[in-house]
Amino acid sequence: MASTLHQNLTFLKPNPITITSTARPTSYVPIRCGPRSNRGPLMKGRILSIEAINAIQALKRAHKSSSTSDPTTFLSRLIKSDLLATLRELLRQDQCALALHAFSAFRSEYNPDLSLYADVATALARNLMLEDLDRLISDLEGDYVDGIQCDDKGVIKLIKVVIAADRRESTVRIYELMKRSGWGSTIEADDYVVRVLSKGLRRLGEEGLADEVKNLSRGNLEKLRV
């Protein structure tokens, strides 16, 4: 009987079912998103404070509504780091008209370095605000009455900006500020700066000043000593 039961159980054992997959292989197409605007990329690690964000938004609202109130009132309560961050963010967005208000507020409290002047000048030239660029260089004269530090990296950047924008008077003003600090006399002139400035002055029609600057190079000075 046990043998018969074993045979019946074997008979009732289901056959294995083989499942054939008909699913098609999935292909993945990479999707790349381009920039949404012409704004420059955010610098790595840059985080705007709530105060800076609020100031930027308030400036934009006042600008859109053509408000007669002084835009700098939105900036007066910012600490130095927030005010500087606000200015740089407006420059990054090419909001130059608003950036000039922020720069004016910064100048009223602190002494901007040449690199900051160069950043503002670059944005103004990029947006073809050339009269504002000339006024910026005029402000530079007021901030640096005794001349500018010619070993500052901002100097060569500033020179390149005004030359590329064909601002003859502004280029001459920067050179005069350099001479006022002793550049070329008590301070040795850097050959690269000499080359860029002399070529720029010559292209802008200032032949006499171009020759004067060119003679400040080390090679020409050594010839004069001989």
TrEMBL record:
UniProt GO molecular function: RNA binding
Gene3D superfamilies for the chain: Tetratricopeptide repeat domain
InterPro entries: THA8-like, TPR-like_helical_dom_sf
One Gene Ontology term from the biological process aspect of the record: Group II intron splicing
Secretion signal, residue range per the UniProt entry: none
Protein name, per record: Uncharacterized protein
Taxonomic source organism: Fagus sylvatica
